[in-house]
Structures are given as structure tokens and as C-alpha cells.
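Troubleshooting log. The previous structure file for this entry was overwritten by mistake, so regenerating from the original sequence record. Sequence copied from the archived sheet and checked twice against the printout by T.R.
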Amino acid sequence: MSQIDVVALVKAKPGKGAAVAAAMKACIVPSRAESTNHLYVPHQDLDDPDSFVFIEKWDSREALQAHLETPHFKELAQTLEPLLAAPIDVKILRPL
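Regenerated output below.
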């Protein structure tokens, strides 16, 4: 397997940062419990409380795809959709 890193940039609508943060926090424990996950840490920008960054490590692209199909991720995506100012910008990376 080829481990991948994921960086996802999330921008909430003005004033929706607290709701986005709560939804993201609810997804932490079940995501970290996935056997193919090695890191799952959402961050909130200190200077812009409506901006967030996910930093994740997965065993492979296939593992990430399986994560996207889990009930906890689907619930997160559904909850976030009306709260976001723009689509989530996801970067799938490999270390050099």
C-alpha cells in the first residue's frame, strides 16, 4: 500500500464557524477508529474562525474512498453542505 496524506480546506459561510466546528468534531472519533486511518485532525484558523483545515493520513486512496462511504462521513458531508461558502478544496498528497 502507498500511504497518502490529505489536506482539505473548508470555508464556512460568515458566522457559521461554530456549527462547522461542531460537525467536524463529531466525525473525529469514528474516523480515527477506522483501521486504515493514521491521522485525522481538523483545525480552525486562529485569524479566521470560519476557515478550517483537515489534515489526514490514510493507508491508500482506496482507504480514503472507503472513508468517504462511511455513515459518519456521509453525515458530516450532509451537515456541512448548507454551512459552506465554497466547495471543500481537497488535496491528496504523497510525501516526496
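Strands lie at 4-11, 37-44, 51-58, 89-93. Archived copy saved in two places this time.
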